[in-house]
Amino acid sequence: MTRFTLTALSTAAPFMLMALAATAAASMPGHDISTMAKATGYQPYSKAAFDAAKSKQRVLFFWASWCPNCRAAEADIQKNLGSLPAGVVVFKTDYDKEAALKKQYGITYQHTFVLVDAQGKALRKWSGGGLKQIVANAAAAKKM
After folding, report:
1. Is the dihedral angle over the CA atoms 21, 23, 28, 32 positive or is it negative?
2. pTM
């Protein structure tokens, strides 16, 4: 392929994916692109995705790229993602950029997790650990 063709394809690809998602959403009554992108498993935090997952157990993982413990926790989550219960969504939340969320939940250092309810109220907050602690805290909160 020529350099022009590759450049054109790489430029058009994101738009083609958006069009496919819109087409798929249109063929499914009651769904739009925002519900098609509904939070599942482990994903970067965005307010839209966080709000879309309010019917699930939501965990904010305050993560920093410069934190070795955060990188280890993320590797653990990624490696063992199949162990995450279907009703739990973990949001990788940028510790350095999400100042309002840090203030809202009283986060003072990275590698902190917050399990929140449908209204966004903190149910549990803990520091350290990985997927085992997420699963254990989500299960304990369900029993409350």
Report:
1. positive
2. 0.72
Q: Which stretch of DSSP H or E encloses residue 112? A: strand 112-116
A 10 A CB-CB count for 78 gives 12
Rounded CA gap, 134 and 108, in Å? 19
Tell me, what's the pLDDT at 144?
Answer: 75
Token duo for residue 129 = 């650990």
Judge whether 115 and 124 are in contact, CB under 8 Å: yes
pLDDT digits (tens, 9 = 90+) for 90-103: 999 999 999 999 99
122-127: strand order across its sheet: 42-44, 88-94, 57-63, 112-116, 122-127
Nearest-5° angle of CA 26, CA 90, CA 44?
65
Is the CB of residue 84 less than 8 Å from the CB of residue 131? yes
